[in-house]
Specification:
Oligomer: heterodimer
Low-confidence stretches of chain A: none
Order of helices and strands of chain A: EEEEEEEEEEE
Largest sheet of chain A: 6 strands, mixed
Shape of chain A: globular
Structural class of chain B: mainly beta
Number of helices of chain A: 0
Largest sheet of chain B: 7 strands, mixed
Mean pLDDT of chain A: 92
Distance between the termini of chain B: 37 Å
Radius of gyration of chain A: 13 Å
Helix content of chain A: under 10%
Distance between the termini of chain A: 36 Å
Shape of chain B: globular
Mean pLDDT of chain B: 92
Number of strands of chain B: 11
Number of helices of chain B: 0
Chain lengths: 112, 115
């Protein structure tokens, strides 16, 4: 089992819809969870981080964390074509080394 | 404030040659990470420096890879001799000292192609 799993997609949604991106992780002791966005040929950039169970909202983005199910998701409301990118889930596991472990990323395509 | 910078942005070398990648982290960031992304696969951790010390190098593929961070500032990653499977994008990231919830800032990456 991979440490951080994401469906590689592509996930295709129409403009204005809600895009739902999912990520599961294997280490139950994981403590911090990050969503990065990576445009083609560019470096990953942080969108949000979450470390408490529940929802965290920032503009059109909502991160959801369920530690019991070892599941973290990212919702993008009112999706725009400019949201088309690869979304990377990263997890900082227990153990104190603070090294982010990344999933494969989900490719999102928002079509007009 | 300058971000994480990597050099070169692209490198094409022949199998058996040596290549050295450089990363300049954000000033004051003690943590420096090297990652590699092979096409179609996830970004994989290579190693982690805290200042000049290698904290974790468990992700280094083999002894053809050598990373250094002299003086705790910039870091280099040398591949010698390069093999075809070393092709990929090598990312460097840095973060401030000792905080669990702090984001890692990424450089633009070096695309390495071994032919």
């Amino acid at each position: 089992q991979k440490e951080v799993e994401q469906n590689s997609g592509p996930l295709s949604v129409p403009e204005g819809a809600i895009a739902s991106l999912n990520c599961t992780y294997s280490d139950r002791g994981s403590q911090s969870f990050f969503w990065y966005r990576q445009y083609s040929g560019k470096s990953p950039e942080l969108i949000m981080f979450i470390y408490s169970n529940g929802d965290k909202e920032d503009g059109r983005f909502t991160a959801q964390l369920n530690k019991a199910s070892q599941y973290v998701s990212l919702l993008i409301r009112d999706s725009q074509p400019s949201d088309s990118a690869t979304y990377l889930c990263a997890v900082i596991r227990s153990g104190g080394s603070y090294i982010p472990t990344f999933g494969r990323g989900t490719s999102l395509i928002v079509h007009p | 404030e300058a971000g994480v910078t990597q050099f070169p942005s692209h490198s094409v070398i022949e199998k058996g040659q040596t290549v050295t990648l450089r990363c300049d982290p954000i000033s004051g960031h003690d943590n420096l990470y090297w990652y590699r992304r092979v096409m179609g696969k996830e970004i994989k951790f290579l190693l982690h420096f805290v200042k000049e010390s290698k904290q974790d190098e468990s992700g280094m593929p083999n002894n053809r890879f050598l990373a250094e961070r002299t003086g705790g500032t910039y870091s280099t990653l040398k591949v010698q001799p390069a093999e075809l499977e070393d092709s990929g994008v090598y990312f460097c990231a840095s973060s401030p000292p000792g905080q669990m919830n702090t984001e890692a800032f990424f450089g633009q990456g070096t695309r390495l192609t071994v032919v």
